[in-house]
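Justification of computing resources. Each target in the renewal requires a structure prediction run like the one illustrated here; the chain below, 224 residues long, is used simply to show the kind of job we budget for.
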Amino acid sequence: MIELLDVARTWPGPPPRPLFQSVSLAVAPGEIVAIVGESGSGKSTLLNLVAGLDRPDRGAVRIDGVDLATLDDDARTRLRRTRIGFVFQAFHVLPYLDVAHNVALPLTLAGVRGAPADPRVAAMLAAVGLADRAASPPRELSGGELQRVAIARALVHAPAVVLADEPTGNLDPRTATVILALLAERVRAHGAALVLATHSRAAAALADRVLVLGADGLVPGALA
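Resulting structure tokens:
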């Protein structure tokens, strides 16, 4: 489902800073891979490359066999809307939409609105413990609740690829456990591929594989 072949990325300067070289990775449907590494090693950048939000300096990124380099900007946007769910570390919850409409956004962008979308949004809000917050504006939510909104939005359209950047970083341990279980269940039930960047032992323990990102690429490892 996800393939990276000899991918390299340098952070633009001044001065330019090499992040990683020769990253190769294959993630199968239903598989969970945790990416760990020091702060600044490029974990978030790697997820952005998989999502087509950034472009590698060298190498290929493929989603379900499609090389992202062959797609124009519109095609990349369509692929993200239909095939990818992204949990951003900074939430990116839209302040002018209530919780339900934030969660519904991937469905709205795909043309699924009203009655067909409502049960899916309600089920996802219930799954992340926010059923009573559907009409709330984001400004009334805590950081942990905003994280749950972001996770619900990433999963509501049953994407083939789920990318999560520190998905439990703003959650208390009990809620983090629930959210991690939800991510794992949805990914495996729908045959999606999940790649998560994390510093969390609990999140890394969820994964089928833990890989350490360094300047020379990915190597098998564990959270120190």
